[in-house]
Amino acid sequence: MPDSAASPPLIELDRARVLREGSVVLDEVSLRIASGQHTVILGPNGCGKSSFVRLIDRSLHPQTREDGAPAVRLFGQARWNVWELRTRLGLVSADLHADLLRQRGLDVEDTVISGFWGTHGLPDHRRVEPSMQERAAEALTLLDIAHLRHRRLATLSTGEARRVLIARALVHRPQALLLDEATAGLDLAARHRFLALLRPLAARGITLIQVTHHVEEILPETVQVILLRAGRVLGCGRPEAMLVPERLSALYDLPLEVQRGAQGDWRIRTA
Length: 271
Description:
There is one protein chain. The chain has 271 residues and is α/β, with parallel strands linked by helices. The protein has nine helices and eleven strands. α5 (130-142) crosses α6 (158-170) and α6 (158-170) packs parallel to α7 (188-203).
C-alpha cells in the first residue's frame, strides 16, 4: 500500500461548486480522501452523491474559482486524461450495470476485458491481447466467478453481475474503487455477499470509496464518513463521531437511533 503520508490525496475537493441545468448540486464542497483511507459518502437521495461521482469520473466539471485555484485534484493532479484516470480509479455502479445490459449478447469475459478501454463492450478497432485475457481471468477467479466467464451478462443474477463489474474495475489493478450505490437492486442476502467481497479488496490495499444512503452498508474497515445533504458537507470524520443520532437525524430529517454490532456493523432505526 502507498505511504499515505508521502503520497498526495487520492481525491481532494477545495470549495468545489457544480451547476446542473442552472441549479447548484454541489455547493462549496471541500473534502479529502487519502490513500488507504476507506471512506463512505453518506446522504439521502438527492443530496448530491451522484453529482460527486460524476465530478470524480470527469463527466461533470466544477465552476472555475475566482482565484483560479483548482477545485478538484485527483491523485494530486488537477488535469487528467479520462482514459488514464480509469486505470487508477475503478468504478462500480448500478448505472454502469444498466448501460452494459443494453449491449446485446455481451458475455462475462468480454465485459471484464472492456474495462481496459472503459467501453460498454469490445471496440472493433481494438485487439485483445493475451495479457488482457490473463488479467480478466485473474479478476474473475479472485471474485469466485471464473465459471461464469462464457455466460451472457444478461442471464446472470443482479448479485453475480455486480461481481462481474468489480472484476471489470480490477483489471487495471487500480489504487481505488469508487462504488456508487453498488448494491442497488440486490436483495438482503445478495447485498450481504456483495459487501463481504469488498473486505478482502481493502486488505489487498485498494482504497474503497462507497457512495450510499444506507448506513447498514458501512464496512468495519471504514475510517472516514462524509455526510452530504443538499449539496453541502454536514460533517466529516471517523465513523464513531459521524454515526451518532444527532448527526444522522439531521442528515435524514428524521429522529433516528444508532446501534453498532459486535462485528463492527452499523444499524439505524427510527426513534
